[in-house]
């Protein structure tokens, strides 16, 4: 960016920021804006907010208002086929139109451009730009094809992630490529998320619970999952939206985020979280009807451990990421991918910690974790809530229970157990806090492990890990990193012995 435009951005930013802060101290601090195409958010063609905007995204025009928290990210979004104008005066966005060249239309020629040297310079510039663009397109194509090849080699058959556009419609992968490599790296700009969310058609409800509903939807012909939060769980939507938009969370074993959207419908607020869709559903659903070979059990357990390590780890390089503890890890919050790996979902209760920036953010969600999966220190309320490590240790307790659910459904010596939730034989369905506390803290029961597990090298190692996730004393438990390392080694060793077996035959 040129220094003059940088200066303009800084000055306009400072102006908007100062006026937004100033607005807090007068009246309700809001300005009346023209509102069009904002679905349910407009009242009689107007809305009130900190900032008025006019946006033009891929031909979709919108006028409305938004909160000052978005202005830095939104008002200075500069992308192909996206025009954004922000202002803070009464109805100041009413007559804004996109610049004439937004679709590549020629602008009027200034008189100096008739000089031949200028024409030559411009032609050269155009040539260099075109060559760079072609180079970039070729590079991206190569990288995509290479990535696909690499996934094939590693047996990753998650085809929803690998789809190439066959027509002119972009895939959400294309949209991410366009925006996320040039932006903050945490996701799509808020207005693009909103535009995408509003282009989704809901197809089928695939889950319903206290949290709300999950739907399969389609966006430009691709399946997406839409979680519609119940109004009483709005804090979970805020938290998950905040985390996905501020933390770089792209990882194979963390559910892929696409967009978040808030609309009002018949005077009630609708909260959407749009993510990748995994047709095999949750691990809980999957285990009801599937049994596993020990190698598949290992692959699943390892993938969950990888996801948890990514969450629990703070990264301090340029790809900075705080540490995150999940606080509601369970088989219903884990999704099964087509390649046999899992990904962790639902960050609505997560806590964030950064040692380098010296903060612990526990959020303000009144929700608590799932009682059945609560660690003893949560049930007897001795957990040190001011220490981040404590939350990671409760995730490890729950991780052991998830491994236990998977291992019950694993066939060893021709024997497999039916699906049962942890502590099924000790507490009723929907147990109370007191019932769980009696079993887990007073009687110190642990889920029982079937004898067959001890006769298989993979399952006996996983059983040992489970036991070490269930120590009553939180610091004695394994860390996610240790679990991942042990399982990775087991995976390499079992690959090695299979290869050896093949060679020997
Ligand atoms: N159930 C909950 N989230 C889901 C998702 N992302 N894909 C499929 N089923 C789900």
TrEMBL record:
Residues at which ATP binds: 227
InterPro entries from the UniProt entry: GS_dom, Kinase-like_dom_sf, Prot_kinase_dom, Protein_kinase_ATP_BS, Ser-Thr/Tyr_kinase_cat_dom, Ser/Thr_kinase_AS, Snake_toxin-like_sf, TGFB_receptor
Catalytic activity: L-threonyl-[receptor-protein] + ATP = O-phospho-L-threonyl-[receptor-protein] + ADP + H(+); L-seryl-[receptor-protein] + ATP = O-phospho-L-seryl-[receptor-protein] + ADP + H(+)
Alphabetized PROSITE patterns for the sequence: GS, PROTEIN_KINASE_ATP, PROTEIN_KINASE_DOM, PROTEIN_KINASE_ST
Lineage: Eukaryota, Metazoa, Chordata, Craniata, Vertebrata
Record's signal peptide: 1-23
SUPFAM superfamilies documented for this protein: Protein kinase-like (PK-like)
Keywords from the named record: ATP-binding, Glycoprotein, Kinase, Magnesium, Manganese, Membrane, Metal-binding, Nucleotide-binding, Receptor, Serine/threonine-protein kinase, Signal, Transferase, Transmembrane, Transmembrane helix
An example Gene Ontology biological process: heart development
Membrane topology according to the record: Single-pass type I membrane protein
Protein name per its UniProtKB record: receptor protein serine/threonine kinase
Sample GO molecular function, one term: transmembrane receptor protein serine/threonine kinase activity
PANTHER family reported in the protein's UniProt record: SERINE_THREONINE-PROTEIN KINASE RECEPTOR R3, TRANSFORMING GROWTH FACTOR-BETA RECEPTOR TYPE I AND II
EC numbers, comma separated: 2.7.11.30
Segments forming domain Protein kinase: 200-490
Names of required cofactors: Mn(2+); Mg(2+)
Enzyme class of the recorded protein, top EC level: transferase
TM region positions: 118-140
Chief localisation class: membrane
Localization: Membrane
Any single Pfam family the record assigns to this protein: PK_Tyr_Ser-Thr
A cellular component term, taken from the record's GO annotations: BMP receptor complex
Superkingdom of this protein's organism: Eukaryota
Family the entry assigns: Belongs to the protein kinase superfamily. TKL Ser/Thr protein kinase family. TGFB receptor subfamily.
Domain GS: 170-199
């Amino acid at each position: 960016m040129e220094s003059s435009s940088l200066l303009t951005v800084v000055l306009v930013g400072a102006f908007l920021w100062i006026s937004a802060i100033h607005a807090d101290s007068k009246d309700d601090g809001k300005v009346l804006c023209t509102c069009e195409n904002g679905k349910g958010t407009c009242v009689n063609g107007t809305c009130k907010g900190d900032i008025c905007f006019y946006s033009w995204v891929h031909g979709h025009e919108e006028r409305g208002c938004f909160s000052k928290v978005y202005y830095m990210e939104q008002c200075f979004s500069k992308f192909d086929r996206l025009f954004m104008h922000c202002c803070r005066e009464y109805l100041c966005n009413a007559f804004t139109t996109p610049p004439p060249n937004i679709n590549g239309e020629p602008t009027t020629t200034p008189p100096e451009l008739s000089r031949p040297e200028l024409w030559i310079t411009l032609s050269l510039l155009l040539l260099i730009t075109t060559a760079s663009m072609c180079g970039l397109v070729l590079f991206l194509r190569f990288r995509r094809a290479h990535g696909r090849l690499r996934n094939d080699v590693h047996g990753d058959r998650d085809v929803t992630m690998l789809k190439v556009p066959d027509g002119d419609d972009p895939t959400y992968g294309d949209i991410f490529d366009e925006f996320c490599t040039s932006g903050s790296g945490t996701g799509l700009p808020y207005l693009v998320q909103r535009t995408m969310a509003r282009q989704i058609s809901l197809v089928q409800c695939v889950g319903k619970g206290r949290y709300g509903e999950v739907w399969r939807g389609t966006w430009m012909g691709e399946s997406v999952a839409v979680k519609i939060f119940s109004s009483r769980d709005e804090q979970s939507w805020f938290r998950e939206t905040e985390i996905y938009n501020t933390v770089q969370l792209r990882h194979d074993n963390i559910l892929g985020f696409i967009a978040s959207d808030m609309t009002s419908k018949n005077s009630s607020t609708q909260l959407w979280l749009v993510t990748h869709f995994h047709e095999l559903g949750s691990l809980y659903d999957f285990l009801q009807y599937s049994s596993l070979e020990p190698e598949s059990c290992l692959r699943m357990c390892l993938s969950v451990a990888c996801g948890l390590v990514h969450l629990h780890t703070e990264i301090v390089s340029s790809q900075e990421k705080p540490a995150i503890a999940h606080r509601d890890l369970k088989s219903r919050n884990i999704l099964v991918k087509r390649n046999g790996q899992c990904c962790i979902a639902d960050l609505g209760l997560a806590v964030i910690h950064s040692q380098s920036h010296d903060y612990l953010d526990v959020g303000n969600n009144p929700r608590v974790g799932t009682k059945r999966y609560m660690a003893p220190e949560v049930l007897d309320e001795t957990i040190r809530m001011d220490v981040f490590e404590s939350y990671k240790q409760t995730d490890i307790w729950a991780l052991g229970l998830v491994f236990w659910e998977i291992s019950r459904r694993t066939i060893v010596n021709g024997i497999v157990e039916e699906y049962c939730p942890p502590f099924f034989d000790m507490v009723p369905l929907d147990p109370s806090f007191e019932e769980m506390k009696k079993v887990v803290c007073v009687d110190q029961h642990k889920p029982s492990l079937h004898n067959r597990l001890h006769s298989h090298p993979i399952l006996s190692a996983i059983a040992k890990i489970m036991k070490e996730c269930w120590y009553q004393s939180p610091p004695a438990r394994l860390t996610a990193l240790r679990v991942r390392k042990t399982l990775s080694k087991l995976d390499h060793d079992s690959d090695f012995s299979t290869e050896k077996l093949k060679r020997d035959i």
